[in-house]
Amino acid sequence: MKRFVLEFATEGAGEIVNLSPMLTERLRGVAGEGLAHLFAVGSTCALTTMEFEPGLIKHDIKNVLQRLVPDDARYEHDATWNDDNGHAHTRAALIGPGLMIPISHGKPLTGEYQQIVFLDFDTRPRKRKVIVTVMT
Fold first, then answer.
1. Where are the domains of the chain?
2. Taking the CB of the first residue and of the last residue of the chain, which one, N or C, has fewer CB atoms within 10 A?
3. 19-53: pLDDT as tens digits
4. Count of C-beta atoms within a 10 Å radius of residue 87
């Protein structure tokens, strides 16, 4: 088993970061078949896979999440903590913090148009971490 951390900065506000190039670089040299488990550290972010293209990342995902979990709704979290990111916690909980990706000889076995992405729902810039555990 091998573990490493992907670290990067985000602007928050629904930013979507393509982790596939960073992950592929870090997996180079991993021999054989196995699995990579990714875990997003933080309660206002999530991981998923999708096509990383402008229509989806700039509009579609944000629009769907806005309809499902509006950022301007009343959240008890905001009232309790005098905060403004109750929607961020809720969106993160719906999508989830983890992914399991099959790997083969140092490459993720994702589809041609399927990238591994990090979604940051918080209301301000953050330094983010994704813990990657590789099992071969």
1. 2-135
2. N
3. 999 999 999 989 899 999 999 999 999 999 999 99
4. 24
Asked if 106 and 41 count as a contact pair (C-beta separation under 8 A), the reply is: no
- The structural architecture, per CATH, of the domain 2-135 is Sandwich (2.60)
Query: pLDDT per residue over 75-120, tens digit each?
Result: 999 999 999 999 999 999 999 999 999 999 999 999 999 999 999 9
**Residue holding tokens 């997003």?**
40
- Angstrom CA distances, 115 to 50, 67, 88, 125, stand at 5, 24, 22, 23
**Residue 2 CB coordination number (10 Å):** 14
The number of helix segments (H) and strand segments (E) in the chain equals 5, 8
